[in-house]
Automatic annotation (TrEMBL):
FMN binds at residues 21-23, 74, 143, 175, 215-217, 237-238. Its EC number is 1.3.1.91. Residues 19-315 form the DUS-like FMN-binding domain. Signal peptide: none annotated. This is tRNA-dihydrouridine(20/20a) synthase. The record marks 101, 187, 190, 304, 307 as: Interacts with tRNA. The keyword tRNA-binding applies. The active site is at 104 (proton donor). Catalyzes the synthesis of 5,6-dihydrouridine (D), a modified base found in the D-loop of most tRNAs, via the reduction of the C5-C6 double bond in target uridines. Specifically modifies U20 and U20a in tRNAs. Its cofactor is FMN.
Amino acid sequence: MPAQPQAQPAPHSPWRLSVAPMLDWTDRHCRYLHRLLSQRALLYTEMVTTGALLHGDVARHLRFGTAEHPLALQLGGSEPHDLARAARLGQDWGYDEINLNCGCPSERVQRGAFGACLMREPQLVADCVKAMVDAVGVPVTVKHRIGIDQVEDYGFVRDFVGTVAQAGCKVFIAHARSAWLKGLSPKENREIPPLRYDVAARLKADFPLLTIAVNGGIKDDAAVHAQLTQLDGVMVGREAYHNPWWLARWDEAFFGAAPNALTREQVEEAMVDYMEREAAEHGTHWYAVARHMLGLRHGLAGARRWRQVWSDHRLKHLGAREVMAIARTAPAPAPLAA
């Protein structure tokens, strides 16, 4: 039987290396895959709004597998009392950390008066953090941008961190781009504002007793190592999702732990086992799980054809194990004519 993910305590800071919270991506199925690949990386949920928890289906938003630890819950909100209640729910459900989103630039999030626009109100963020710190015993952390709109003044983010730290937040994850709240889409906000890793390093120099991690544009081992020479942690976003096999190197490369002994084929088989359990226990179709592992063969010959099979809606009537058999026996694309 393929190996199952087994969470183990990390010998380093929990924030040394993590996978970013990504809306519509880092659900529990995605996190199961990531935990198969790395036992040590810190994983995050998608952002969950306080309204969804306080007025919606709590189990749907907070259910996770015990193998996912260490696992943080990211919350979106701006009302201290509501955030405290939501944080307490997260702790009761067993999350290892509660993270407040002060970095999302989308207009929908702005209409809810949270995300990156909260950086304009550091005292409100401090009030939110204090309410959560008073409500739970697990770490309360903040993910933020280095600025908003086209403000390049380091003092803006320095004062934000300083104010929020006084409320009890000891861990900050800085996305090393400013958030332009008008005129750019969320996708453009991940690409157009320049990356300024030096700002995160300067925050660490000014606040040496705080844990400062950096997020944004980090795509390979060398970039991770470079940031870890001056910061406490690195958070990886889309590269971890599109090229998940990279995570299989993380435990050995960044935590000094034993290397991941699983092959890509064994990871695929473990995911199929998971798909079958999910179907039996929750009625989850394999198609909803498979989308998260489409990058598993990234860079290998035949990866495109394998990915096409697993994403073919015409095969949805088949079982996951049958689809795996088709994906593994699918003919390679014919060579181009000379």
